[in-house]
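Fold it.
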Amino acid sequence: MRAKLEYIHGSPSLCNEFRLSTLVAALVIFYAMLRNSAATAFATPLEPNSFARVLAGNITRSRCDTLISDERILAVEQHFAANKVDPSSSSAAAAAPINIYFHVIREDATLVGGNVPDSQIQAQIDVMNEAYAGTGLTWTLAEVNRVDNANWFNNMGGPGTSISREMQVALRKGGAADLNVYTVAFTNSGLLGYAAFPFDYQNDPDIDGIVILYSSVPGGTTVPYDLGATLIHEAGHWVGLYHTFQGGCTAPGDSVDDTPPESSPAFGCPVGRDTCRGGEVDPIHNYMDYTDDSCMTDPFTPGQVERLKAMMATYRDVTF
C-alpha cells in the first residue's frame, strides 16, 4: 500500500511541497472570503428595526420610530427633484417663527402622570431654537393643551397605528407650517418618539406632527435622553431630514453630501467611530444620529440646512 501511495503522489518531499502549497492556497482563499465578508458588513445597512432599541431610563426603548425604506426614498427624491421650490423665490410664503402646539397627554395632574410643567416645555422650545440657530428657522410656543386621557398616555403606539391617528385627528391644530407636538408615556410600546415627513402632509395632513416621550424634555427622567434632543431630532424629520445612517455606506445615503456616510446608528458617544471605509469618521455629534443627548453637539451641516430649507419651501410653503 505504501508503494502505491508513493507511486501516485510522488516522493515524500514532493508530497510535502504539495501539502504546503495546498495549505497556502486555502489560507489565501479564506482570507479573501473574510475580507469580502467584512466589506459587505460595512457596506450593507442593517434593517431599520434591528438597531432601533436603546436603554433609556432602565427601559429598552426605540430611539426613533421614524423609519423610511430606501425604495420609498427613491420615489420621494424623484418627486422632490421634479417639484422643488427655490427657498429664495417669491412663490413660497415668508416664514414667521414656526408655531408649536404642545399637547400634553396625561394620566393625571402629577409629573409621573405626564403633566409636563410649563417650565420644561419652555426649556424644550429654548433648546430647539439653540439647535436650529444656524438654519434661520425659529420656533415659538403657540399654545399648551393639557388632555386627560390615560389610554392615549399609556398605550400610544407607533406611527400609523389606530390610536396614534385617533389622538392626532382629535387634537391637531393649524396647517402645514404649524408643528403639533404630543407628549405621552409609551408605556406599552417603549418608544422615544416619531415624526411625520413634510412630503406626507398633502396626502395625510391629520397625522402631521411629532409624538415624543414626555420625560425626554429638558429636566426629564429618561437618562441619557433627558436634554430635549429627542424633539430636536424628530423636528429634523419634520423639516425633511433623514437619519445620518440612512442607506448605510451606499450613496446617496441621507441625500446630504456633507454628512459622512455611516453604516448603522451610533449609541452612547463613540468618538472616532468609523463604519464606512475611505471617508470621514461617523457624524456621531449630528442631531440626526442616535447618540446620547449630551453627544449631539454639532450644528446642522450646510447641506442639511440647504435641504431642510428646500423641503420646507416645497412641502410646507414657507421660507426662512
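The helical segments are 2-9, 12-43, 70-83, 118-131, 150-155, 162-171, 229-238, 302-315.
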